[in-house]
Design brief:
mainly alpha; 2 helices; 91% helix; transmembrane; membrane
Amino acid sequence: MEYLIGHMEIYSVHFLHFCFFLRFLIFFFPLFFFFSYFSFHSYIYTFFFLEIIIYF
């Protein structure tokens, strides 16, 4: 039973991270698109965005 509860806690933490990541994406994706569309150095923003995704 404790094993199951431990797994439930792990999954709830992952779910919280996922919700935070979704909010982060919804907020930052338009900004990222804006920068990549108008900026000459769009590949830098792409790399930065990927680094953030890997970090989360």
